[in-house]
Amino acid sequence: MLAEIHRKISRSGSNLSDRLEDKLTGDFFGAIRYMPFEVAFQHVMRQVRFHNDDHQLEWNAVIDKVAGYEAVLDFWPSHSEGEIDLLLRHSDAYVGIEVKYFSSLSSVDEEDEESIRPEESKNQLVRYARMLKEIGKDRPKFLVFLAPYNILFPVEHAMQTSSVLLEDVPFGYLGWQDVLSALEQIDLQPMPYWQAMIINDLKALLVRKGFVHYKGLPESLLHTELTDEAYQYCKQDIERRGYLWPAHDTIEQEDSYVYHQQ
């Protein structure tokens, strides 16, 4: 809905295949904003990872302060550096969130980064960091890159070895798979029905998008005592059935044959 309201998707939907990231952004964050921040959004934002411990502590402190509807979400705000997907404005911080689904960064530096200054970089994330530095003024500023693991990890590695990062705009990283895991851990039992319904819909959406991932062996299995004794596996008797093979002298390729159950 929000992607269409903000004209990311045409009225006819003819450009929908080119705007799937915008649609996912609008569908997910447009729905999660209807609930108080601490109900679901906070759980998701706690999954953001920073490589600097001080930045991580500062981030956690900011996220834990936000409650209710204090945070204002701006979708695709226009700026000379580009349109970041989501801008979260709060009295304690500015948070930019760039969302990816199928594609990676839209622009990177083609030249040797060592010869490029941060204020000259064409890298999409660096441009958004410059935007946050300008509009955030004296408030703490954070930039979060949200993407599936296969896109997230290569970008994360490249940015960690980059020389064009802005020191006063920490970069955080979040996988869509981590978002789904965070929602799955929320206890829906004490919630009003409408909140639980939204969270269930968001989980179903992310499952449909293919963000389910292997989380390791069950905790109970990890504590199972192993011995040298043999294990006996029991199963119910399987009903045996017989089938009559067609009485043909030869089997011809691409012909159809019917098997009759005895």
TrEMBL record:
Q: What is this protein called?
A: NERD domain-containing protein
